Amino acid sequence: MRVVVTGGAGYIGSVVVARLVGSGHAATVVDDLSKGHREAVSQGASLAICDLGDPTALGRIFKQFAPDAVVHLAARSLVGESMTIPGTYYRQNVTNTLNVLEAMDAVGCNSIVFSSTAAVYGEPDLDVGGTGIVEESPTVPTNVYGETKLAAERMISWYAATRGFRTIALRYFNASGADGGLGEDHRPEAHLIPNVLRVALGQASNLAVFGGDHPTPDGTPIRDYVHVTDLAVAHIRALEVLDAGTVTHDTLNLGTGSGFSVAQIVETARRVTGHAIPTLTTERRAGDPPILVASGARARTVLDWNPLESSIEAIIGSAWEWHRAHPHGYSGSR
């Protein structure tokens, strides 16, 4: 297949592209490099530097490449930031998704895998040891980021209903880990595991833990962590089932069905890295759910997907290896 990957120079996108190329597909990365990294783009892929907010330029790329399918990952994804610049999030996550859909429609490409998020569920009422969030759980976003992703999902579903698009939306739960030479390099970094490892690297004196009084066994929030390699495999499987026609429109959670608390992540990182990793407990963040864990049962059935790499030791071990080799991210390594 010829596949356009928007945001293919980013963390998850770069691994998706590498896996596509490794599977024999032709991949074109469309990225403005505002958040992504040129160094992360697989040598077997082509790179088209383009702002998705420019529909004319985007249309030229689609006409030139004539893709069979699209993986749409490009988006703004910081919850706190979304509450301070909502307009930017609506433009980049909703309007730019519309630009992608129109560019596809113009060249007769009607197959899309969409990168969505657990943030569409808001603050679900979950118990420790429960089965986790399912796709039928209420979607009640509590921030602009989640709302814009849900709006994009709904827009894509209408293209399925009215334009015959074949679509799968993948709702992520805490992408983590590294895949060989591809790792997590965000500026600023908001994710837990890279920030834990910054302390191990001596780049921070301690890790801020937001709240030690959550209704969980150790008082710290519990999250579902999925290895970025497993997420990339899910994208490839989604493209394959759309191409085979076995699925025409679906929404799937990508989760492991089990969760780890912040304290458990820190303790595992201490074992893996051999460093003390001091922590400092601060106030809870507003709207921070105590537990977010997903049932991945439907993805296992529809995609024949199993998160084989997603043990917490494998996740933190691969991330530690990458961050030690790239202590300053893609901008500099040892």
Q: Would you mind describing this structure in some detail?
A:
- Helices cover 38% and strands 17% of the residues.
- With 334 residues, the protein is an alpha/beta fold.
- It has a domain at 2-176 and 225-256 and 294-308: Rossmann fold (3-Layer(aba) Sandwich).
- Helix 1 crosses helix 7 (228-244).
- The model has no long low-confidence stretch (mean pLDDT 93).
Give keywords.
7-stranded parallel sheet, alpha/beta, Rossmann fold, 17% strand, 3-stranded mixed sheet, 334 residues
Per-chain topology:
Elements: E1 2-6, H1 11-22, E2 26-31, E3 46-49, H2 55-65, E4 69-72, H3 79-82, H4 86-107, E5 111-117, H5 144-163, E6 166-172, E7 175-176, H6 192-200, E8 207-210, E9 222-223, E10 226-227, H7 228-244, E11 249-254, E12 260-261, H8 262-273, E13 279-282, E14 291-292, H9 297-303, H10 312-325
Parallel strand pairs: 1-2, 1-4, 2-3, 4-5, 5-6, 6-11, 7-10, 8-13, 9-14
Antiparallel strand pairs: 9-12
Helix pairs in contact: 1-7, 2-4, 4-5, 6-8, 6-10, 8-10
Quick overview of this protein structure:
The protein is an alpha/beta fold and 334 residues long. It is built from 10 helices and 14 strands.
Kindly provide the radius of gyration, computed on alpha-carbon positions and rounded to a whole number of angstroms: 19 Å
The total of helices stands at 10
Order of SSEs, N→C?
EHEEHEHHEHEEHEEEHEEHEEHH
Quote the average pLDDT.
93
Structural class category: alpha/beta
Q: Which CATH architecture of the domain at 2-176 and 225-256 and 294-308 is right?
A: 3-Layer(aba) Sandwich
Share in helix: 25-40%
CATH topology of the domain at 2-176 and 225-256 and 294-308: Rossmann fold
Could you tell me how far the N terminus lies from the C terminus, measured between alpha carbons in angstroms? Answer: 37 Å
Task: State the strand order across the main sheet.
Answer: 3-2-1-4-5-6-11
What is the H level of CATH, i.e. the homologous superfamily of the domain at 2-176 and 225-256 and 294-308? NAD(P)-binding Rossmann-like Domain
Largest sheet: 7 strands, parallel
Class of the domain at 2-176 and 225-256 and 294-308, according to the CATH hierarchy?
A: Alpha Beta
Q: Would you count the extended β strands for me?
A: 14
Ranges where pLDDT stays below 50 over 5 or more residues in a row are: none
Give the overall shape: globular
Taken as a percent bin, the fraction of beta residues is 15-25%
